[in-house]
Amino acid sequence: MNKQRTSTGQAFWATLQRDLLIAYKRKNDMANPFMFFLIVASLFPIGISPDPERLAEIAAGVLWISALLASLLAMDNLYRADYEDGSLEQLLLSPHPLYFLVLAKNIAHWLVSGLPVVLVSPLIAYMLNLPSESYMILFVTLLLGTPVFSLLGSIGVALTVGLGSRGLILAVITLPMSVPVLIAGTLAIEQTSNGASLSGFLAILGAMLLASISVAPLASGAALRISVN
Amino acid sequence: MWLWFSKLGSPKWFYELSGKWLPWLIATMILFLVIGATWALLYVPQDYQQGLTNRIMYVHVPVASLSLSFFPLMAVAGTITLVWKMKLADMVVKVAAPLGAWFTALALASGSIWGVDTWGTWWIWDGRLTSLLLQLFLLLGIISLRSALEDSDAAARACALLSIVGCINVVVIKYSVDWWNTLHQPGTTFGMSSDQPNGPEFWIPLLIMGIAVALFFTVSLILATRNEILERERRSQWVQELVQE
Fold first, then answer.
1. Does A1 fall in a domain?
2. Which residue has the higher pLDDT, B176 or A220?
3. A168: which chain B residues are within 8 Å (Cβ-Cβ)?
């Protein structure tokens, strides 16, 4: 019986590596959310106004909303493939705490879908004429905020993974929950450009991130157990 | 205590007990509603600024404050569903979601009607309005999740979980939206300062209306739960007997 015992840490790393490897093999799935982010962000100047001054006013909001929508779009393939090929069931049967395995999957997913969006955001910010002193703030707040989108979205995906038409339900469930992060992120950019100190906003975003890291994977795990019966 | 608890979980027991309560609850509700509405609409002195418009407060404030109680209610019932797998608790989660959506929509609508006369606009992105709107969206999300999941046991647990998550989230949304709003509109004069009645001639009818609306909420919840019980237990013997009577 007691041949090879893996520790929870090993299981965590194994899950993380496996998901990153799968993402690497399916580069298209990886590129889609990123492309989506670029396209949505470039629709705003076309739809609202090409005037640089008006764009500068809405740039922060546009970037945050595009990042939120891109993260929502990317969520769908977080558990679906695993659900369809049965490996999700194996994950649930594993003796390790589901919290760490779900967290590993969320981290892997954010690394391939959230991080590229954050990295490219200064470029889009430039194109939207965001004041240059806000680039760093935008980058840091997105870096703290987009993982929260992934962690919250993970709960919604886990609840709807067995459904045929889950896309819209996922949006209805997840988007209202993401509002606090959106508020903190856009306020940080707007208020600091008016001279407010950044540290308070970073503290709030950091608190949201820590709270969702510690609670959301538990909820996702419970939701997965419900969905995979 | 545990005997009482497991008894409460039995749909049949609840159905019989609530059947005995209902006439009394409805009678009290009508009594309070008639007294409260007449007093509020005919006898309360007019507000010196808002005139007759102010009377909508007697509907809006009770409805709005009750609509905030839905998520805590659903979260508690959801926890009971997840922990003790009590059927009755799941029925409450199920019927409370549409009821809560109606209450929230009513609170928003009555607030809009009040707002158009006092603020001069139907809608404003005020903290309270926005957080109620987001609460409505979350409730609609729970309703659509319930209707999308076919297996009723999985739907029960999924909605219970989402109610708990949503309840935590509503609190975070409430605070963050207030924060967003106060930063955006410093020194706002909107707020709800006009609902601080200055004398008993204002707050006693408000209290009566508050009790009336709370009773209305209880009665609707019980009626909807009874309906749900009949539907789910339609194959059991006692329901068949009841239908045949």
1. no
2. A220
3. 144
pTM for the full predicted model:
0.85
Q: Is residue A3 part of a domain?
A: no
**CA-based nearest residue in chain A for residue B127:** A183
Q: Does residue A61 belong to the interface with chain B, where contact is any CB pair within 8 Å?
A: no
- Which one of B157, B166, B180 has the shortest CB-CB distance to A187? B180
Residue B204: CA count within 13 A, CB half-sphere: 9
Q: How many domains does chain A have?
A: 1
Q: Of A176, A112, A180, A120, nearest to A145 (Cα)? A: A180
* Structure token digits, residue A21: 């490897």
Structural domain span for residue A72: 8-227
Q: Is the pLDDT of residue B197 over 50?
A: no
Q: What share of chain A is helix, strand, coil (3-state, %, to 5)?
A: 85, 0, 15
Q: Which residue of A has its CA nearest to B166?
A: A177
Residue A17 Cα, gap to closest chain B Cα (Å): 29
User: pLDDT at position B191, please?
Assistant: 41
The predicted complex's ipTM stands at 0.83
> What is the predicted pLDDT for the residue at A11?
87
Residues 6+ apart with CB under 8 A from B180: A183, A187, B127, B130
A220–B contact, CB cutoff 8 A: no
A207: nearest CA partner in chain B: B172
Distance, CA of B58 to CA of B195 (rounded, Å):
9
SS3 A178: coil
* Inter-chain touch B169–A159, beta carbons under 8 Å: no
